[in-house]
Structures are given as structure tokens and as C-alpha cells.
Amino acid sequence: MAATAHKPLNAITADDLAAAAPGTDAAALHEAVRRALDSHGGDGPAAVWAELCRSVLRPAVPFAIHRMLYYGCFAGFSSPTPPAWTPDPEEAALTNVGRILEARGREFIGDAYKDPVASFSDIHKFSNENPEAYWKMVFEEMGIEFSVKPSCILRESDAYPGGEWLPGAVLNAAANCVTAKPGRNSDDVAIVWRDEGKDSDPLNYVTLEELRRQDSLVANALDALDLPKGSAIAIDMPMNVNAVVIYLGIVLAGYVVVSIADSFAAPAIMTRLKISEAKAIFTQDYILRGDKELPLYSRVVEAKAPMAIVIPVRGSFQIKGLRVGDLSWQDFLGRVNHSKYVIFVTCLSYIK
What's in the keyword line of the UniProt record (predicted)? Predict the structure, then answer.
């Protein structure tokens, strides 16, 4: 229900609170609401709501009271979805958005800038009205690198309802993922992971440098297959660290990823392979679910998939019983010609 359908906070009585939640100490609640209004009413509804959350609305307070005070606090609010939580300026300044706004907010809105919370709406308005300046800043802060820069940020055109974003731009998304960004370095952690069924084991960590090395190895191994650049390559396996490495490696090398859910039966896999005209597929021999090994490679074979690269779910054991033309993960990586090895930091095979 919209906030305007409720009594304003200063009109809520102790009787209203008692009717909403019989058995509560309505008089004490009402007094606490009055104190919040007296101390924070001049700072706006978000400040009053924050004070109510801090001093009044404990989990033991019935939800009907939470709801009444929330909508009462934001009665007449400009949006039908008032904020249920607003960070304080100190917390906001520690976020990525807050850090950027603190550094560059005055560059955009001058002396009107106060802090990341109070000025958020003004910055949002600026971003809509000045996309060239705003998005140029975003790309700088994120360290996004284009091999061919866009001619502009947004081009208005009848042929493109809503406009054409970044016309003429060329980049490789994966290359940007594995390149150290401002304030980061190659020793920073890129992935934190743990194997299925090993919940009590220590966490595993992959640094940005190691991720770049592994992605480059996959990209070089793909190049050794001599597939046409821009070809579709499927991935049908659980979302684990190998899947991340493979995904980025495919894009680094200039190919297109086709993601297929590991839960799909053979007919559904076949349909997606046909539609995408995939030239190869990465998969696992099995999927681990608790103590069970659920066949996956056999489903890929049943789907009449193109050449499959098969990762063993347990360790680095050689996989037996592969189709002619399919490759084990070990053999796939072993095809890399290290005399022609390329570190794909800035890949030359970009896709528009």
C-alpha cells in the first residue's frame, strides 16, 4: 500500500498503536516515536526512520508496528517505494560509489554536493542529463580499456529506440576482467572457492595474476584447435573455479560463450547447441551432489555435441571412454605450443 494511504507519523496516537498490536506497551512506543520526531524531525523522514530503527523497532516489536511507523514516517514521500534503510554518511563513504562521489561529486554538481547519501539523487539526475561526462568518469574509475574508443557515449537515433550506446566501441570484456584496476594489483584475490562436498576444508584463493595465467593457457589451447574466430563455444558444467577460467579464456581468445545449464537433459542440450552452432563444448565427466556422481559427459554425448573438452571432477585423472575427437582437460591444455604462447592481457581478437 502506498505511503500516502497511512497516517503521518505525527498523527499516530497511542490508541492507533494499541489497535495495530494489542498487548504491546502502546504508551511507551508512542513516547519513543515522539522523541524520534523531536530529535530528528528537522532532518527529514529518512533520519527519523533511522532513529526509530535504532531505538524502537526491535525484532520483538510486532510487524504491524514496524509497518505503521514506516509508512507513517514516509507519508507523502515523493516515491511510492520509500527507503527502508539508508546508510549513514560514514558507511556510505566506504563504498565504491561513496568513494567516487567523495572524490568527484563537486566536479559534477559543485557546491551543491554534501555527502554520498544527501547528494545521491542530485548525482543521479546529473548522470541522466550529462551521460558523456558521467560515463567517461565511470570508465576511468573502473579502468575499462577499449581497443577502439567509442565516438561518443550515447547517440540519439530513430533507428535505435532509447539511443545507441558507445557507438564504434570495441573491447574484450574478459581482458578487462583480468587486468589490474586503479588501486588494485596482480596479487589481489580474484576468486575465493571451495570444492563441492568439502565444506570443512580451508578456502582456496586465486589471485588476479594466477587467473590471468590460467585464462591465457585456456585461450592459447583454444587457438591450437584452429576454430574460426568468433565461433560459439559451449560450457555445460557446474559453476566452479574451472568454469570461470574457461569462460574468461573463451572470451579472451575471441570466441563466443554459450552457457548451458548442467541440469539440462540431452534434448535441451542438443537444442542449444544447434541454435548456437557451437563448434566445441566444455563439460565434466560427472557432477558431484553429496556422495553421488551424476553423469554429465554422457548427456553431452547423447546430445550429439561437437568436440567436447572433458574436465575430470576428481583431481587430474585421465578420463577413459571418450568419443573419437573429444579431449580430456589434460590433453587439451597439453596442445599449447609454448613457442607461440601469448599472454592475453590485451587480447587482439576483439568482438564488437
Answer: Membrane, Transmembrane, Transmembrane helix
Contact 242, 212 (CB under 8 A): no
pLDDT band at 1 (very low <50, low <70, confident <90, very high): very low
Rounded to an integer, the average pLDDT of 33-56 is 91
Record the pTM: 0.77
- Cell of residue 9, nine digits: 507519523
Residues 68, 74, 76, 77, CA torsion sign? negative
Return the C-alpha cell found at 325: 575427437
pLDDT of residue 49: 93
Query: Could you list the residue range(s) of the whole structural domain that residue 289 is in?
Result: 177-340
Give the rounded percent of residues in the chain with a pLDDT score beyond 90: 72
Instruction: Please answer whether residues 52 and 36 qualify as being in contact, where contact means their C-beta atoms are separated by less than 8 angstroms.
Output: yes
Q: Which amino acid makes up residue 271? A: T
Residue 246 has pLDDT above 90, yes or no: yes
Instruction: Tell me the C-alpha distance between 330 and 338, whole Å.
Output: 15
Question: Considering the domain boundaries, does residue 119 fall inside one?
Answer: no
CB neighbourhood size of 331 (10 A)? 15
Q: What is the pLDDT of residues 50-104, one digit of tens each?
A: 999 999 999 999 999 999 999 999 998 888 888 888 888 888 999 999 999 999 9
- Banded pLDDT at 319 (limits 50, 70, 90): confident
DSSP 336: -
Instruction: Pull the grid cell for residue 337.
Output: 605450443
8 A C-beta contact, residue 181 and residue 251: no
- Taking Cα atoms as reference points, which of 18, 20, 55 lies closest to residue 34? 55
- Provide the domain count of the chain: 2
β-pair type (189-193, 204-207): antiparallel
Among 30, 54, 73, where does a domain finish? 73
The CATH number for 290's domain is 3.40.50.980
Nine-digit cell string for 230: 568468433
- Cα separation, 235 vs 309, in Å, equals 10
- As beta bridge partners, residue 28 has none
Q: Is 247 buried (19+), middle (13-18) or exposed (0-12) by CB count in 10 A? A: buried
